[in-house]
Amino acid sequence: QQVTAKKRICIVGAGPAGFYAAQYLLKQLSDCTVDIVEKLPVPFGLVRFGVAPDHPEVKNVINTFTKTAENPRLRFFGNVSLGQDVSLQELRQRYHAVLLTYGADQDRELQLQNEEQKHVISARKFVAWYNGLPGAEQLQPDLSGRDVTIVGQGNVAMDVARMLLSPIDTLKATDTTEYALEALARSQVKRVHLVGRRGPLQAAFTIKELREMLKLPNVTTNWRADDFAGIAEQVEQLQRPRRRLTELMLKSLSEQSKRTATAVDGKQFLPIFLRAPKAISAKEIEFAVTQLQENAAVATDTTECLPADLILRSIGYKSSCADPAINFDPQRGHVRHDQGRVLKEGEGSSVEPGLYVAGWLGTGPTGVILTTMNGAFAVAKTICDDITANAFDTASTKPGFEVANQRIVTWDGWLRIDQHECEAGKAKGKLREKIVDVEQMLRIAGV
Ligand code: FAD
Asked: What residue ranges of the chain have pLDDT lower than 70?
């Protein structure tokens, strides 16, 4: 692609933040080119490797991203990792502006003893396993026990619970990886506990995810009536989304008391509130009973043990520092910035000219794709404003990215992988059969 353009912008990370920012920049700046540098040979970040396989409609955003990628002023450089294959300094020299959107690829820990034991795994790894992130196929979660306890009650925790409790036939048509389908088909898991430190009014999952759980065939949801003491009285004062969620929980609880007996063969979904993880042992996890004080969970001396053949930690993601030149806050796990402008190390509020951050790398790991989109548009607008205001050098000629000893997957290379995956999936009656081996991806991409 031979394009003559004045402003060269590099985006690091081909997830939603990267693609939405690219879309905005290409539309608003007719004289810019955008290069997206992505660590993996394949694009779309957590839309491919996070979003649950039984939520294919969420992945429709890929169509918008593909339209953006087809713009002749955009180039995709897959299989190029910032910090490994290229440094931030090189990128800043080669581009007028660099936007970091490389997401959050680590997880927060409970900081408990025995957390490194084999039966304790992060929801992040489990999600990556069923979604086919390269390297994650090695995880081999042990699903031979009856009880799984998930620590955390966000939508990621709900996704994981649903994957464990869904009838295998409903997953077979999705793009769940074949090895995960085989393992889930053999699974002996019967009860999934979903444990949170705070109460029903603070539950982090949303109503759509709860509705799906309540509708799962052959799964009974059992709440603890004690957790809901005094809740019904507060419903009227709640904001609408919170009120509807709470009403649904209360409705489900009241239906539960009318049920005669739990189907013997059935699986159980067991949400448990007001418990903070305290100690991990081989077959169980101990929780401190908590009390709410101004919306915060405070541990009491009372404890409760829950059975846990497998423990899944789902208390959030965090970013890593991909390059030492990035002003990274290790405590909070994100890049230090002011409205998307990356701050200079140790210099108060002065910014690095031409360096920006968006998406989970800037905001921390919160928000759905729509939130990420709005944030990325806002940062892209800031870049446009800064260009208009000549806030950084846009006059000198910049060479852009150059290939050096690297097998780079172009957008056409990705389309070849995509076609291969869709055809392999079709043969099995699935949406797609993801390739998980990087070497194989590169071969199919033709590099
Ligand atoms: P990411 O999507 O993580 O993209 C970052 C990209 O950067 C990745 O492609 C990564 O490979 C690349 N990268 C990483 N390191 C480097 C490097 N050193 N060099 C170059 N590239 C690099 N939202 C919804 O709206 N609906 C859902 O159903 C939903 N489900 C979710 C399920 C899970 C398990 C998770 C974790 C999130 C879910 N979300 C969902 C939220 C949504 O995925 C995020 O809002 C969004 O993906 C964040 O976008 P991002 O671009 O900041 O990060």
From this structure: 1-5, 260-265, 347, 405
Query: Could you tell me the two tokens for 346?
Result: 């140790």
Cα–Cα distance measured from residue 148 to residue 378, given in angstroms and rounded to the nearest whole number: 41
Structure confidence at residue 240 (pLDDT):
95
Would you state the structure tokens that stand for residue 171, as one six-digit string?
Answer: 């997953």
Number of separate domains in the chain: 2
Is residue 293 domain-resident?
Answer: yes
Three-state DSSP at 274 gives: coil
Same domain for 302 and 365? no
DSSP secondary-structure letter at 218? Answer: T
Q: Give me Rg for the CA atoms of the chain.
A: 23
371 alpha carbon – ligand 1 mean position (Å): 12
Cα 446 to ligand 1 centroid, rounded to whole Å: 26
**Which atom of ligand 1 is closest in space to residue 372's alpha carbon?**
45
Same domain, 346 and 294: no
Whether 103 and 81 have beta carbons less than 8 Å apart is answered as: no
| Phi, psi torsion values for 445, nearest 5 degrees | -70, -15
What gap in Å lies between CA 137 and CA 125, rounded to an integer?
Answer: 9
Q: Which residues line ligand 1 (CB under 6 A)?
A: 12-18, 37-40, 45-47, 50-51, 55, 58, 81-83, 101-103, 105, 127, 156, 159, 317, 322, 359-361, 367-369, 372
Domain span at residue 292 reads: 117-313
Query: 86 Cβ partners below 8 Å, 6+ apart?
Result: 37, 80, 401
Residue 353 burial (C-beta neighbours within 10 Å; 0-12, 13-18, 19+): middle
* pTM reported for the whole predicted model: 0.95
Choosing from 36, 37, 44, 46 the residue with most ligand 1 atoms within 8 A of its CB, the one to mutate for a pocket test is: 46
Q: Could you tell which of 36, 84, 102 is best to mutate to test the pocket of ligand 1, judged by most ligand atoms within 8 Å of the CB?
A: 102
Q: Are residues 252 and 220 in the same domain?
A: yes
Per-residue pLDDT, 3: 40
Q: Give the pLDDT of residue 258.
A: 78
Asked if residue 97 and residue 181 are part of one domain, the reply reads: no
Q: How far is the CA of 45 from the centre of ligand 1 (A)?
A: 5
